[in-house]
Amino acid sequence: MGQMTEKLSAAIGAFFPGLKEVGSYVGGEIVPGAGEEIAVADPATGEMLMGYPDGGDAVVARAAEAAIAGQREWAALTHAARGRTMQAIARALRDRIEDLAVLEAVSAGKPIRDCRVEATKVAEMFEYYAGWADKVHGEVIPVPTTHFNYTRREPLGVVLQITPWNAPIFTCGWQIAPAIAMGNAVLLKPSELTPLTSMAVAALAEQAGLPRGVVNVLCGYGHTTGQAAIGNPAVKKVVFVGSPATGSKIAAAAAKRVTPCVLELGGKSANIVFEDADLERACIGAQAAIFAGAGQSCVSGSRLLVQRSVYDRFVEMVAAGARRLRTGDPLDPATEVGPINNAAQYRHVLGMIESGIGEGVEIVTGSSGRPAERGYFVEPTVLKNVSNDMAVAREEIFGPVVAAIPFDTEEEAIAIANDSPFGLAGAVWTGNVGRAHRVAAQVKAGTFWINSYKVINVASPFGGYDSSGYGRSSGIEALHEYTQVKSVWVETAAQPAAAFGYAPGVGA
């Protein structure tokens, strides 16, 4: 019970010296769970990495109490004071980038080079929203009466944020920063497989001056700890990042208490390459779009649509680049593609490749669907001769597997791109400026790139269409997600109401 490997103990010990057992981070303290033991495997080896008990109802109840008290203290500060504290959090994070990156690499199986970038981006998120803390305000409305009418943007109170295993520290900062900038407190429920960097961020934030209880990290399963949090009356909004199937269940559970949600779900994004594109540049972009993070990204360019006149040539270019990518130990600075995070997802990826083989696709390079000798590694894989009705083109694989689909005309490319239940992201590569903007306007996607891919910044709104979810989780739009608007009416007339047929005490 509560085991940790030596390398993980060293990584987490940089933030919690002497920690013997993983538990939820509640009100500034590690609180052990009392539920079923959760076993977490090392993605690079498949061997036991750590085990800890599920949090459960009692931990959630304690965290909710801590959040209510913390939010009251946090919201009582001036907006400017909250902004200064968030700047201090950003500095604390920047001082510990390497420690955060190592912990992420060890616990999530992501290449250390990627983890350093993502940890730095988390600091940037707090800096960005620190600047917004005192700049979101209400309005004065010229109503046609003798009243002075104004609005206030007020915090919701306590919000629940449920984050995934594919980008634990990135989604932790992505969700927490805008929520606390607006004066809220957070119950963060990371994946039970990757809670450690979220705990570290919460601890660093408190060391930088954030009141205890403003950010609490719940360690446990979604169907137990997560469900208890959704049902807790303290929670005023639920934010979920993950699969459409789970998102649907969470939205249904939240609806029982009429709790609003923001859902950031999956994708099957179309990366469209026309014959007039800079093919070398587009090839590099296509590789980054699908192989970065071992393809475990909701915005991965998993459908590669290539104009037929350059299809064979371009697909081979992408495959040649895929063969040169270094797969290996996440802590090795030379590693470019790490393992799949967990056994269940690993089996899914291999199963999808086997499905493609059964439907007649050609594997130009990469995995044939057979398990690796050690760990959860899948070679960067390029599938050729794919049609958009195949499972590999319609279902989210969430691994380093790209399905290359040919097209002839601009209209056909747009039709194929939109023939999907998802609408998260997409891209077009072309030398024709008019075509670039036409395609961007017609493809249904919350984020779209022209001659680029996978550029995301906290300042720009992010979210999806259709089965990819609703709501926006960055930019100023995220701040609006974490506030509620109050309309205030002040009577200014010396003798109110006679001219308007109004009598005091009579409602609208």
- Distance from first to last alpha carbon: 61 Å
Largest sheet: 7 strands, mixed
What is the tally of helical segments? Answer: 16
| Gyration radius over CA | 24 Å
Structural class: alpha/beta
Q: How would you classify the quaternary structure?
A: single chain
- Model regions low in confidence, pLDDT < 50 over at least 5 residues: none
β-sheet strand percentage: 15-25%
Identify the overall geometry.
Answer: globular
- Within the largest sheet, what's the order of strands? 14-15-16-13-12-18-19
Number of strands: 22
Helix content: 25-40%
Residue-averaged pLDDT: 95
Explain briefly what this protein structure is.
With 508 residues, the chain is α/β, with parallel strands linked by helices. The chain has 16 helices and 22 strands.
Overview of the molecule:
- The protein is of the alpha/beta class and 508 residues long.
- It has 16 helices and 22 strands.
- Strands 14-15-16-13-12-18-19 form a seven-stranded mixed β-sheet, with helices on both faces.
- α1 (6-13) runs antiparallel to α4 (97-108), α4 crosses α5 and α5 runs parallel beside α6.
- The protein is globular, with a radius of gyration of 24 Å.
- The chain starts with 5 loop residues before the first helix and ends in a 17-residue tail after the last strand.
- The model has no long low-confidence stretch (mean pLDDT 95).
